[in-house]
Amino acid sequence: xxxxxxxxxxxxxxxxxxxxxxxxxxxxxxxxxxxxxxxxxxxxxxxxxxxxxxxxxxxxxxxxxxxxxxxxxxxxxxxxxxxxxxxxxxxxxxxxxxxxxxxxxxxxxxxxxxxxxxxxxxxxxxxxxxxxxxxxxxxxxxxxxxxxxxxxxxxxxxxxxxxxxxxxxxxxxxxxxxxxxxxxxxxxxxxxxxxxxxxxxxxxxxxxxxxxxxxxxxxxxxxxxxxxxxxxxxxxxxxxxxxxxxxxxxxxxxxxxxxxxxxxxxxxxxxxxxxxxxxxxxxxxxxxxxxxx
Length: 293
Fold this sequence. Notes:
Elements: H1 2-41, E1 43-44, E2 52-53, H2 57-63, H3 66-97, H4 104-116, H5 119-129, H6 136-143, H7 158-183, H8 187-195, H9 200-211, H10 213-228, H11 232-237, H12 249-259, H13 263-291
Antiparallel strand pairs: 1-2
Helix pairs in contact: 1-13, 2-13, 3-7, 3-10, 3-12, 4-7, 7-10, 10-13, 12-13
């Protein structure tokens, strides 16, 4: 009887043993950083000197920090350009690939290839393409009789240039997601719509879009989170310039932490920025669900 009891006790703890690596990972790399960041919000710390409790001083500084609001505005501009552009291109390509085309597998792999390449490598590559003197894009424009374009040195178009590059890099992932969603739509729906005389646009509007609504919602959320996480591209290509026109919120938070060693203030910015993302995602969810009810 004792032996059976020991075996039962061992089986009881087996699930906890199996998930223990994941639990340890969550505690060390998720829970602890979040709790420590909340703790830092109320302190001033530069890593070297001892922490100093400052209460709500970091929040007061946040609301009066014009450069942070400038960085936040730049991030919103990027998101407003990047997300619609990415969704339109990804859905259009997925819609084309979903049809019976030759080399469909090749096109899928080609679109997805930039996703698996290092973001640093792609950013450096596009930095060369955007070059003012020897860049491929400007050489092409000159050969066509146009003037050079200051892709990264003109404050009016620098963020647009970065958004185009980010879309090219990430669109392959969303092409695959949309393709999976399109393949779940029964072909009988389209056959019945054609019999009733529905046009291609009507089929897309009243059959395709409602059917892929869960996929569309997921793509919008992932694109939003990815857009607000803009960091590598402006960090490497412009360092936030010119005139802070490409300074993203994430880049500004990074500079506060590892450029000026304002750890407490950086934690305050991070938590405030996370709440903004949550609010934007919540609004998007309600809008998409209401639009496709």
